[in-house]
Amino acid sequence: MTYLDELGEFGLIGRIGKQFSVPRGMTGIGDDCAIIPQKNGMDTLVSTDMLIEGTHFLREDANPYDLGWKSAAVNISDIAAMGGKPVATFLSLALPKDIDTAWVDGFISGYRDLSAVFSCPLLGGDTTASPDRLCINVAVLGECPSGKAKKRGDARPGDLICVTGPLGDSAAGLKVILGGMERDADAEKLVRRHYRPMPRVKEGRALAALDGVHAMMDISDGIGSDLRHILEASGTGAEVDVVAIPLSPELAAVCTREGWDALDCAVSGGEDYELLFTAAPDADLSCIAHTKIGRITKDTALVWKGSGKDFQGFRHF
Ligand code: ADP
Ligand code: MG
User: Fold this and answer.
1) How far is the CA of 91 from the centre of ligand 2 (A)?
2) How many domains does the chain have?
3) Is residue 170 part of a domain?
4) For residue 53, what is the DSSP state?
5) 33 CA closest ligand 1 atom index
6) 32 Cα nearest atom in ligand 1
7) Ligand 1 pocket, Cβ-based, cut-off 6 angstroms
8) 217 and 75 within one domain
9) Is residue 219 domain-resident?
């Protein structure tokens, strides 16, 4: 039987993880980053992410600059998800032989410009020819004060569930791209949110400094799926107030015009790269923009209050 039929994505990762024991003090598979304690009062954070042509992007649609930007952004977002500061990235490219130099230059410009926002240098990587598809792998290193990284498994019953910004723009932007639609200013903004996500590093670091903030992750697959990761890791459930989920005016405008379900984009669509976190009700969160969308419950069910639907997030397989 294929790994896909037998195990699925998370079953496969679990099967790999079972073969290795994690040294004491380290955090391995299961969070946005691995955590490796250092002797200087800091923890090192490490993550890696792959983008494959045909799965994560279409070469004819994505311009190389945007793809370079996004490749760096989605990785640095995993550092933000832990509340860390990005330190450096490593870039590996498998390039089909028909890629021209201008394409590579565009890609690297986008990668450089996003990296510059966070003063995060590229320190190495690997390059190889690919017989067919373009494949991009980035590894990112970050750091945070010892023991301060926010994990997925620390949500507590009674916590508020919050997000750092509007959801669904990226998913709607992808619909605009794939539908080949004509773009007004609103649609253009959604497309930009899809191609040029901005990792919430500043917000993540501010949240990491607050003891009242418990669990955190970045929203890569949509809260329908990502919130489940927090719930499973924490052994809790949640009630989400569907009407409280923040939607941008651009998303509302385009969805009304096209007859799309904005909520479906916000919950089931991925790649917003906002932060999803839980916090004690008395935590002072005034240092960052955020919206409360629900609460963590002892009961392990996930309830979408104000909607008859049972939302799922984006599935990779
Ligand atoms: P994210 O959405 O934040 O990128 P993923 O869902 O891709 O996280 O991965 C979930 C967890 O599984 C992470 O901790 C990641 O490091 C781990 N993981 C994924 N694939 C593998 C693999 N092939 N081997 C070991 N660990 C893996
Ligand atoms: Mg992540």
Assistant:
1) 18
2) 2
3) yes
4) B
5) 14
6) 3
7) 13, 16, 29-32, 49, 78, 220
8) no
9) yes
Q: Could you list the residue range(s) of the whole structural domain that residue 199 is in?
A: 152-305
Distance CA 90, CA 282 (A): 40
What CATH number has the domain bearing residue 56?
Answer: 3.30.1330.10
| Same domain for 174 and 72 | no
Distance of CA 252 from the midpoint of ligand 2 (Å) = 26
Q: Check which CATH number belongs to the domain holding 199 and give it.
A: 3.90.650.10
Q: Are residues 120 and 162 in the same domain?
A: no
310 — pLDDT class (breaks 50, 70, 90): low
The secondary structure of 147-180 as a DSSP string is T---BGGG--TTPEEEESS--SHHHHHHHHHHTT
- Residue found under tokens 């301060």: 148
The answer, yes or no, to whether residue 136 has pLDDT greater than 70, is yes
Ion ligand 2 — residues with CB < 5 Å: 32, 78, 81, 218
Question: Higher model confidence: residue 114 or residue 3?
Answer: 114
- Which among 102, 243, 223, 96 is positioned nearest to 163, based on CA atoms? 223
* pTM for this entry: 0.95
